[in-house]
């Protein structure tokens, strides 16, 4: 189904803005390009929400979270970049597992079940896309999502 991703993202940012405000985090989002794609809007919205929620949750007060949306002829690119606590190199490849939480965050006041990213991952896979993590401890994390503009047609 055709989805207005710019509108979807704007709604996500609006919903999470109070959480960012409470931590004096600058939540940056540029809604100037209107981008549409074939997607399951409910599922994709939750998937991207989980990323922005994490970015705000794992970024200390007065940090920055930058969200961007772009497209070329084939793909949509969404990135969520934060100036947060980062993820240790030896744990990066585990964060998409169900219930996985990084040691340091496990007993933190920032509650969570460790399900968010596993849901995000399966939704991106369902859309035949990809998700990549760039992270450095004490510096921040950037999550890059790609999904095709059109979903492959199923025959038969
Ligand atoms: P839930 O999303 O279910 O509320 P959660 O946030 O702990 O709980 P995930 O979203 O699956 O679970 O993330 C898994 C773990 O990856 C987190 O517990 C955290 O340790 C780490 N993590 C995820 N995003 C970030 C980020 N932007 N910066 C630092 N660590 C992160
Ligand atoms: Mg989460």
From TrEMBL:
Subcellular location per UniProt equals: Membrane
Per UniProt, residues of the Histidine kinase domain are 1-151
Protein name (database record): histidine kinase
Organism expressing this protein natively: Anaerotignum faecicola
């Amino acid at each position: 189904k055709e989805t207005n991703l710019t509108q979807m993202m704007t709604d996500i940012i609006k919903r999470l803005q109070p959480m960012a405000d409470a931590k004096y985090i600058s939540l940056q989002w540029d809604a100037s390009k209107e981008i549409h794609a074939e997607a399951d809007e409910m599922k994709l919205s939750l998937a991207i929400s989980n990323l922005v929620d994490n970015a705000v949750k794992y970024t200390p007060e007065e940090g920055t979270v930058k969200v961007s949306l772009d497209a070329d002829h084939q793909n949509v690119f969404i990135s969520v970049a934060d100036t947060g606590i980062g993820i240790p190199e030896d744990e990066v490849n585990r964060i998409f597992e169900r219930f996985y939480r990084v040691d340091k965050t496990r007993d933190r006041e920032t509650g969570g079940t460790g399900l968010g990213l596993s849901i995000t991952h399966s939704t991106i896979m369902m859309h035949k896309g990809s998700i990549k993590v760039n992270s450095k401890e004490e510096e921040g994390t950037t999550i890059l999502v790609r999904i095709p503009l059109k979903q492959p047609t199923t025959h038969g």
